[in-house]
Amino acid sequence: MKALVLERYGKANQLAFKDLPRPTIQPRQILVKVHAVGLNPIDTMIPKGDFKPILKFQLPAVMGSDLAGVVVEVGNQVTRFKVGDSVYASVFDLGTGSLAEYTLVPESAAAHKPEKLNFIEAASIPMVGLTSWQALKERASIKLGQKVFIPAGSGGIGTFAIQLAKHLGAKVATTTSTRNIAFVKRLGADEVIDYKTQAFEKLLQGYDAVLGTTRGDGIEKALQILKPNSRVVSLIGPPDAAFARQRGMNIFMRLVFGLLSNKIIRLAKKRDIEYSFLFVQPNGQQLAEIGKIIDDGQIQPVIDRVFPFDQTLQALAYLEEGRAKGKVVVQLIESK
Fold first, then answer.
1. Among 46, 64, 72, 158, which residue is least crowded by beta carbons within 10 Å?
2. Range(s) of the domain holding residue 309
3. Which of 57, 59, 48 is nearest to 18 (CA)?
């Protein structure tokens, strides 16, 4: 089978298409013929070695996390899926990759594809959907009437997180460029800050939660808009000691991450704010819940561009430019 493989870490492009054997299924896995793969910013960062200390990644490795496709084989202990089922999943950090003609998926990580979505649309959902769900619903416990700040509202995470926060009953503020203001308002944003001409920390106040999605000093500035007993859930770091413990890292790495996060945790505590770092976890049950919300028409995927499989390198380069409005998807099989 054809797959996009990372041979070694490095600044120059280390990715190449390879012919690999079709994967051998295990008892609690399903083998999926991949129709489409959703790309995520981390897919452009992994080859450079940015996540080498964190990810359980053995090279050479097939790249990609999100997928949608059709089950072609099931392990002898699988109970929730059968051959012919349309599914979607994230295999992030599970020792396998989705940018291949066939991908092994643990039964626990997969869900039936939302009926209202085609394969391209479904492939755009897993990582942004799971990240938003785990950050807003589980970690921040967003409730009806609360106020949530979600920066970069026109990006892959932002477009989904805004819609999920509205589904949970929150009032949402976001930042975007001038040309995307109307777009994020259509997604449900109640207050939109043009980051090119306005400073969100001077215009917003009394917020219950912040989703940290932008690098630089954005999280420190966001502390100014939060009220006491609120939460910051960061997707971009710094990682904290709790994350290191969760990953089973040694005492040295726990100390390192504790030092890295010390400043932001200290600043947050001064304001009675809880800071935590979130590293998304594949979860088929959560994807099933997300699928119900999608099929109810309350959340719609936002896709910027679709690339054919043989142009995956160009798709990754386009994603890395940081201008995509919504998700970038790679299509392996044309939908009928």
1. 72
2. 2-125+301-331
3. 59
Q: Which of 107, 126, 111, 162 is nearest to 42 (CA)?
A: 126
> CA-to-CA distance for 194 and 202, rounded, in angstroms?
12
**In whole numbers, what is the pLDDT of the chain averaged over residues?**
94
Quick check: 143 and 169 in contact, CB under 8 A? yes
For residues 180 and 90, state if they share a domain.
Answer: no
Same domain for 319 and 251: no
For residues 242 and 276, what is the distance between their CA atoms, to the nearest angstrom? 8
User: Which tokens in the block code for residue 33?
Assistant: 């013929």
Give the least confident one: 150-154, 159-163, 236-240, 279-283.
Answer: 236-240
- pLDDT surpassing 70 at residue 324: yes
Long-range contact pairs involving 113-118 (C-beta distance under 8 Å, separation at least 24)? 113/68, 113/86, 113/87, 113/88, 113/291, 114/88, 114/290, 114/291, 114/294, 114/295, 115/295, 116/294, 116/295, 116/297, 117/68, 117/294, 117/301, 118/335
Q: Rounded to an integer, what distance in angstroms lies between the CA atom of residue 233 and that of residue 321?
A: 25
